[in-house]
Amino acid sequence: MKQIEKFLNSGAYIVLIFSITLISWSFYKETPPFDYNLINMIGILFFIFLLCFIFISFRNTMYSIPILIGLLFILNKSDMTFETSIDLGFPIVAISSFLFSFVFHLIRFKPKFHKGRFFLGLFLIAVGYIIALIYLPFDITAIPVSLLGFLYLFFYVFYSSTSKSNLEYLFKIMFVANLVLTFQLFIYVYRGFMTYTDLDFMTRLFLGWLRNLGWANTNDMCFYIALTFPSYIYFIMKKPKNYWLWILMILPVAAVVFTKSRGGLISFGLSGLFSILLFYFKGPKKNYIHWIALAAVPVFILAINFRFFIEWLNILASIEGEGFNAFTSNRIYFYTEGIKIFLRYPIFGGGWLSIQSFPFDGRLFMYHSTIIQALATMGLFGLGALIIHFIQVFKYMFNEVSVEKYLFLIGFIASQLHGLVDNVQYSIPFSVFIVVILAIFETSEKKTSFELVEGRYIYIES
């Protein structure tokens, strides 16, 4: 068992988990007689059983975190419902297995649960999720989504009470997750390119395969890549002479370019810019050769194919319809309707299904703004709860600031800025990812692996 635990504590284990995530996700066509992909479901079930094994076998639940994060990015069917998945008994098997292993872990290891530093904000957000159910007409479909706040609170309390974490493990997870997200986008582009063979090369390159990625759309991918991108700088600061790290850093840049997401480009651009600035001013040394080489690659690519750049700019500038609302992809309409809901229910909001109360011909789940989402669904109470959560996060991160905290803040702030115009804070994968990150920061035995020497951070070997 010690050998297994040693492997679970390694980078190889994290790479294995996310490799399975990518491979399982890559199967997207339906598998008869089911109307979803059987291989994708097998990958999910394998992760759930592995999660159960870890809960049953080990006191330290940190080893389950890569699996949990992998589960966030593995699903590859956007229109899956309970009815379509019940053919395999998937929800029943998954939920019963998880509950059994969770109860077994509690009985065997008897962990002592505590509130933790971030409990208050997350608890108030969880209350904000459900309180509108009290006065709104009963709708059973509103219950699952309204309980999500308590699910996030559960993950935070559970991992902050049962994991014995370390920050390097976290940054390995973020680094490999970033690569998986990047490769998912490349696969998306490749499938579109191979599907539309009758079109010209440039159109095929930017077309994608005209579907979302199963668990998200291409817009959403950008803020996850922005959140995790600073992890590259962590390992570059650890080993600044490793050229392959610098080369790999170009991949997410290219992937975000292919998304054609204007908001995503801004958030990722900020994450990348401030990550690089942190390294330039606080890294072990300036490495001018690395910077020149890094800048030369995109310049060279643009020089040999300037048409690519022009076509990309034209796509970014193109809009369907007229007016500012069309330019914002109907977001002004969403915001206006969200404010109407808020004015009708100013204290506790109109609930999580309130967005269904106004007509819209298209895909619509949220109000495409963290602030409007909070006000419309949870009212002033929900916005206040979110502000308290942010205060707790920033208070902790700015106390005894370290390289790790700097890098988290860069990705967190960049993605939250994206949240002003998109579904970020209340997206399920984002919320789970954030509470797990906060739990790891809080429970990490070693708070930093870097020492400030003459104004620059130097990695200290354990």
Overview of the molecule:
The protein has 462 residues and is mainly α. It has two domains: 1-111, no CATH class; 113-462, no CATH class. 66% of the residues lie in helices and 2% in strands. The chain is built from 23 helices and two strands. The chain has a two-stranded antiparallel sheet with strand order 1-2. A hairpin with a 2-residue loop joins β1 and β2 (456-459). α2 (11-25) packs parallel to α10 and α10 packs across α15. The longest helix is centred in the middle third of the chain and has 29 residues, at 167-195.
Strands ordered across the widest β-sheet: 1-2
Proportion of strand residues: under 5%
Round the Cα radius of gyration to an integer and report it: 22 Å
The whole-number mean of residue pLDDT values reads 86
Shape: globular
For the record, the count of structural domains works out to 2
Q: Structural class given helices, strands, pairing?
A: mainly alpha
Number of DSSP helical runs: 23
Helicity, in percent?
55-70%
- Give a quick account of the main beta sheet: strands, pairing sense, barrel closure: 2 strands, antiparallel
Low confidence ranges: none
Element-level helix/strand string: HHHHHHHHHHHHHHHHHHHHHHHEE
Overall number of strands: 2
- Distance from first to last alpha carbon: 24 Å
